[in-house]
């Protein structure tokens, strides 16, 4: 079985993985890989090694890792090889292949134009934070935790 893992750094902000999850869902629908999953280096769930464990348990023998980064910077050239070495040590029977960072992919031009055409006035720039709060998990590390934007934990400024 072939699997695809979308690898990203992760974020302290709850709901920050919403876009990557949506990409994974679109890729699953295409059916090019038997499994398409997301795995994070830090902060977000699920951690990369947990994702690998789950798909190996399901029968994956080949895992293609796609870094969800515009450039092959530190997390792609240093952090990803380290965590892949851990995965290879745990699962020596599995073949791991790493794709390049997105870089100059021609499809990004369309994504940039879509973003430009959906540009919003400054008053609406904080709407993504509101969407992130909808995916809230009570985590003191989240920048929204304990604020009026966090639906899970009463904020100190909220009336009691």
Keywords:
14% strand, 4 strands, alpha/beta, Rossmann fold, four-stranded parallel beta sheet, 37% helix, globular
Quick recap:
By secondary structure, the chain is α/β, with parallel strands linked by helices. The protein is built from five helices and four strands, in the order βαβαβαβαα.
Spell out the helices and strands N to C.
EHEHEHEHH
Unreliable spans: none
Number of strands: 4
- Order of strands in the sheet with the most strands? 2-1-3-4
The level 1 CATH classification of the largest domain is Alpha Beta
Which percent bin holds the helix content? 25-40%
Shape: globular
CATH architecture of the largest domain: 3-Layer(aba) Sandwich
Rounded to the nearest angstrom, the distance between the terminal CA atoms is 54 Å
Computed Rg: 18 Å
CATH fold-type name of the largest domain: Rossmann fold
- Estimated share of beta-strand residues: 5-15%
